[in-house]
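Obj: model holo form, ligand = FE2/S2 (inorganic) cluster.
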Amino acid sequence: MQPARTPSGPDTVNRRELLVATAAGAAFTATGTVAQAQAAAGAAPTAGRTPAGAHDPFTATVNLTVNGSRHSVDLDTRTTLLDLLREHLHMTGTKKGCDHGQCGACTVIADGRRINACLSLALMHEGDEITTIEGLGSPERMHPMQAAFVRHDGYQCGYCTPGQVCSAVAVLDEIEAGIPSHVTADLMAKPEISNDEVRERMSGNICRCGAYSNIEDAIADVAGRKA
Ligand code: FES
Ligand code: FES
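Output (holo structure tokens):
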């Protein structure tokens, strides 16, 4: 008969040995995966080891206009537009919240359309015109939307505010241009600036302080209507 295994038997693996073996296995697997992916892509094993004079596949130059000023920046090809703005151009008005396209704090206007800068590679904006919160107005000369946010107390901590303002400006332009939203009932008619339209279009901009009703008032004010 098969002898019963006991905790003190010779083939017992203690908890510490099991953890060490598991961690080593995970590290081996991860290393193998990266190496295999690099080999399959024909990439150099490690960035920064490109021989002198050879094409460096990890860096590129992007030329774009930000708030009316032209910039030419050498950067890692994986750099997002958000990191280009904040880390390379030192325009920190645009905020990084989730860095995953979920909060809207990084909203900027690219060629007239609002986008989440954290979800967009900088290289995709070659030749584009980018407007950030710094380009909309300044404390001395505020954009009407910025002034309305102040007037209606449309913020508390202010972290989401640059994204909210950029988004709100673009929302009114979208409605004016006749671009429908998920709640537009008649796709053939020009959408109206209603509470439902504004709420739906601003739904990608999260405010952890819950200033939503005041933000709505500010947008309605600029649009010339009562929320
Ligand atoms: S930081 Fe871009 S959506 Fe949150
Ligand atoms: S004002 Fe604090 S997150 Fe919106």
